[in-house]
Amino acid sequence: MCTYATSTAEVTGSGYRGDEWFPVDRAVVYFDHPQDATLDHALCIDVWGGRERVAVELDAASARRLAETILATLQRDEVTLLI
Amino acid sequence: MTDGIVAETITMTGNGGDEIEAYLAHPLDGDDRPGVVVLHHMPGYDRATKEIVRTFAVYGYVALMPNLFHRYAPGAKAGDAAAAARDAGGVPDEQCLGDVQGAIEVLRRRPESNGKIGVIGYCSGGRQAFLVACTLDVDAAVDCYGGRANVDLAPELRCPLLGLFGADDQSPSPDDVAAMAKALEANGKTFDFHSYEGAGHAFFSVDRPSYRLDAARDGWKQIWAFYDRHLKGT
Q1: CA distance A29 to chain B (A)
Q2: Which residue in the set B43, B76, B90 is minimally distant from A33, CB to CB?
Q3: Whole-complex ipTM
Q4: Beta bridge partners of A13
Q5: Is B5-232 a CATH 3.40.50.1820 domain?
Q6: Peptide bond preceding B172: is omega within 30 degrees of 0, i.e. cis?
Q7: How far apart are CA B112 and CA B67, in angstroms?
């Protein structure tokens, strides 16, 4: 099935496209058919800056581990002091 | 006649007079050829769908696939254009219909055209193929596992419809397919639905884990029989 399930988040920072960095301003997150990953469906993230993007396609378990790891990192004591 | 084909990217006029790219494949020679508009899936105007376009040419059809995502990232790779279209909120139905109408006109102007036009779509393109069949003048339509097809449009169907579905798909689910069949039946429409056991969504996709050999082989047979009957008159 096509889920069409798409969400967008504003982000601030930079993305790396392999040869240079570029500023990014939004992340489009969706669970749908991937372009390349050998999965029927994948959690896809496109981090955009203008018309350039950094993209990943992950299986659901990987995506969950990534999300939990990001949150755990942000919740570390030495990090919470800074944000 | 030879068995050669020509396949190339062309520029065509789509919705609102916009110039968009499209992938055209046709037999090298011969005449009295039907046209088929191919509607790509959510991953876009990609290598796998171009292969499908070429397959139609091998079977004697002039096939044209408009890149429905072209405007969002002209000249970009298929994956980037698909991502850009999603970032923009997706393709509005009116824009899709305008692009398909443009493709129909390109096919009708072809010197080898027999005047008959079919449409086929996969995945999101399956939903769009049904929308086209209810809105534009085509002679036969094939919906390959298009989810979220609007059952309320059933009374508007203008041509014979072939539907190819996976019994394990969740959208369209077997209940969705049954509801559509019931609505088409109630409105006296000509349709032929096949649901394959052991297959889910995207069973035609040879480069994805969803590929199912038996369903795909029979599905292609159904397509050739359906189009030969309605577009070639054989």
Answers
A1: 9
A2: B43
A3: 0.83
A4: A24
A5: yes
A6: yes
A7: 23
